[in-house]
Amino acid sequence: MKKENKKQKKQFKLHLSSLKKSAKIKNKSTGDQQFRIKKMKNQSDEKSKSFENTLQNLKKQRQKKLTTRLITLILLFSFAILVVVYFISSLSKVDIVSVSGTKEVADQEVIDVSQIKSGDDFWGVFFERKEISKKVFSELPQVKAVEINFSGLNDYTIKIEEHQTVAYLAENNRYFNILENGKIVNESRKISIGNPPIFKNFKENEALNTIIVQYQLLNENIQNSISEIEYTPSDIDDHLIRLYMNDGNEVIASIPSFAEKMVYYPDMVKKIGDQKGTFNIEVGAYFSPFEYSEEKNGAEKEEEKTTNNENSAELNLEEETQ
């Protein structure tokens, strides 16, 4: 009996332990299943949140694109309106046309030649600036350079650079500007202006161009001492000229050697003292004093001045420089 009881107890313990093991296994499997379910729920929640975020981002991007397009359309439309208003308004028309840099040429003459006037299309003038400048340059010989610039919202300034007037051509009691480039201006005046000398019998040719170059080689003091230069070609010398000086003397010279020999003029004057006469520096250097005679013409007396070649004196130019 005792053995059977022990055996039953042992079997019961074994059965109980097996039950505990099965319970543990069951509990473990239940926990694993709950963990998987929880994990799946978390994954599902994350997916749903990610989808919602994606939708929100797409909505924001779409809204941003729509806003950008709307702003672009508004700006384009506003710009188009401004352009239309600008071209309708007076701002697109030329208001004031002014001229700067002129001394000899009249401002109105420049404006008339350019044909720019108030009310003209502003941008039309802008794109034709080169053609207008060429026209002013070609029609006005005194103009050396032309530049057309903005001067305000809708104003233009025509900037002029002039050729320098180096002399005046005297003809029939009228005076014509002789420019540094050898051109003679067609417009005349009753009197000469400033210190430039008076030229006589010159035309637009090689002789005029050469005398301009020679004259500009002289220093300012000698230039200011010359009153008139007369072109007097002869059979022997096609470049012969006669100068009438402000001190009362006269000078005969040849254009090609004019500047070279006129350098000695102040020293030659000192050498002859108070005498007045003609200096011939065409070949060498000679001085001939004037002879004066008085002739009666009605109630008036006229004084005639002639050169006495018999009393001519040779001057040594090399000595004058020592």
Automatic annotation (TrEMBL):
Basic and acidic residues compositional bias, start-end: 294-307
One cellular component (GO) term of this entry: cell division site
Location of the protein in the cell: Cell membrane; Membrane
Domain POTRA residues, every copy: 92-163
Residues in coiled coil: none
Topology within the bilayer: Single-pass type II membrane protein
TM segment ranges: 70-88
Region Disordered: start-end pairs: 18-51, 294-322
Keywords: Cell cycle, Cell division, Cell membrane, Membrane, Transmembrane, Transmembrane helix
Record-linked Pfam families: FtsQ_DivIB_C (PF03799), POTRA_1 (PF08478)
Domain of life the protein comes from: Bacteria
Its biological purpose: Cell division protein that may be involved in stabilizing or promoting the assembly of the division complex.
Entry similarity comment: Belongs to the FtsQ/DivIB family. DivIB subfamily.
HAMAP family: DivIB (MF_00912)
Record-given protein name: Cell division protein DivIB
